[in-house]
Amino acid sequence: MPVVRDLRVLLRLTNFRRLLAVRLLSQCADGVYQVALATYVVFSPEKQTSPAAIASAMAVLLLPYSLIGPFAGVLLDRWRRRQVFLYGNLLRTALACGTAALMLASVPDWLFYASALSVTAVNRFVLAGLSASLPRVVDAERLVVANSLSPTAGTLAATLGGGLAFVVRFVSADSDAAVVALGAVLYLCAALASLRMPRDLLGPEPELVQPRLAAALASTAHGLMSGLRHVGERRAAAHALAAMTLVRFCYGALTVAVLMLCRYAWSSTESEGLALLGLALAVSGAGFFAAAVISPWVVGRFGPFGWMTACAGAATFLTPALGLSFEPAPLLIAAFALGLITQGTKIATDTVVQTSVDDGYRGRVFSLYDVLYNVAFVGAAGVAALMLPPDGRSVPLVLLVAGVYGATTLLLLGRRRQQS
What we know:
Blueprint (H helix, E strand, L loop, with lengths): L1 H10 L2 H29 L8 H16 L2 H8 L4 H25 L3 H25 L9 H29 L3 H20 L18 H6 L1 H14 L1 H31 L4 H54 L4 H29 L5 H26 L7 H25 L1
Helix pairs in contact: 2-6, 2-7, 2-8, 3-6, 3-14, 4-6, 4-10, 4-14, 5-6, 5-8, 6-14, 7-8, 7-12, 7-13, 10-14, 11-12, 11-13, 11-14, 11-15, 12-13, 12-15
């Protein structure tokens, strides 16, 4: 198979393997940390969780550091990206240890959220840097395959990290703190793995590197506007980012619904609800893997916008068909299908952005991409909080999500007509 052959070629590229190792370790740690936060906020026996509480937690953890995104992009286009991976993961190691200590001390929620926010804020630099660095270790011919393998492998690593977190939580007495400590160890491993790459390998070009922080921060506003103008001039990138934002909104709204269903409608105990949530995450992860396998072939045959249109169109019909029953079996099938659809859309979007944006702007554009990605998820959580009853069953929310998928399909069809 061509995909298998291309994957073998990619994995023979030493620097691609090393960058992939940093991604896998870093995102595995992210999965561990995120599950620790979710279980602490949603499934702690002493907490009575509501959709509004979930939305508030997401807003606290995602919105503030999303505002860092544009600044991260400007800095990523000036700092050596290898150094960002090294020092960023070392910093997250220390901060995660601090979060574990706060959990053991049973501090007020605001202090816990502040610590968690510090860890996830650094994530903006690491994830945007990983995407911006990929074209530096892979040739343009195999960039689509690399975009299928690398981010999807990272997502699967995060899913695996979530699974490890569930295991640790079930066997550990100080469960949540122990899970966060495991995340800290994995962040440290990611930092050490980055040392295997040369300092200047991942760019940006030496003439763009500004070693003094003050000089880089002084150009932040100008750099952000330049990045926005650059996207405006690259209509393909702008359309892809708009479509991905809408798809992410849909995924976020359904995620909150599934959380509430697992917590209250499908289970009578916290441990049973956690097990169901873990199963849903695993099934969705299988959908991510399926997207990595089929996306290169589909994109090669129909183009990235053709694949994105097919994904959004399929989701338009699958969401009400599988979601309106509010039963575990159909919704687990939906979790697989929407995992495939969401990741397939992301693979295509990454490819469009990387191929239509100049290297000197990639850090800024991917940071803006990251902001849209998280703001869409938080916005979806807020909408879900307004529409969901305590047990998570809401026909209007399912129909709204189907409508947004339909609008995305029309947007992408309009893009394809412009090309023809």
